[in-house]
Amino acid sequence: MELTVSTPALFFPCISLLMVAYTNKFIAISKRIRDLHSEYIESPDDILHNQIVLFRKRLFLIRNMQITAIFSFLMCIICILLIFVGYINAAKVVFTICLLSFMLSLFMALREILISVNALDIQLTNFEFEHTK
Questions:
Q1: What gap in Å lies between CA 88 and CA 82, rounded to an integer?
Q2: Is residue 55 within 8 Å of 43, Cβ to Cβ?
């Protein structure tokens, strides 16, 4: 396989958009955690507590998603630099690391989505329980 500058450069917009999406998730979750914390202080509830626990897991995943995306971005830049200086074999190794890091970030995003759905399920269960009273 021939590795040219354009190959890792194609990942720049992908990784950038992914990082924007992760940042937006982080901001939304941060706001929701603050709101839930206020609700929990006013009236402690097991359902709120369970949601807060799930938010902690989600924050952990989002932090790691961001770290691996940034690492992938850095590997892209290093790969391009290695191509420019003529170290093609090293560039291939670095590009492989970039791809693996990107893939790991996406797997963590998938896990975070599954936890998010679980949190929404808790909310819906609470709603259904309150509605049937």
A1: 7
A2: no
Q: Residue 73, Cβ neighbours under 10 Å: how many?
A: 20
> How many residues in the chain?
133
For residue 54 the two structure tokens come to: 């799930």
Is the pTM higher than 0.70? The answer reads yes
Measured from the Cβ of residue 107, the count of other Cβ atoms closer than 10 Å reads 13
Instruction: DSSP letter for 4, please.
Output: -
Cβ neighbours of residue 122 closer than 8 Å, sequence gap 6 or more: 47, 50, 51, 54
Q: How many CA atoms lie within 13 A of 109 on its CB side?
A: 20
pLDDT one-digit tens code per residue, 43-102: 777 777 777 888 888 899 999 999 999 999 999 999 999 999 999 999 999 999 999 999
Specify whether the CB–CB gap between 90 and 82 falls below 8 A.
yes
Residue 125 sits at the vertex; the CA angle it makes with 54 and 131, to the nearest 5 degrees, is: 140
- Give CA–CA dist 104/99, Å, rounded: 9
Question: What is the widest separation between alpha-carbon atoms in the chain?
Answer: 71
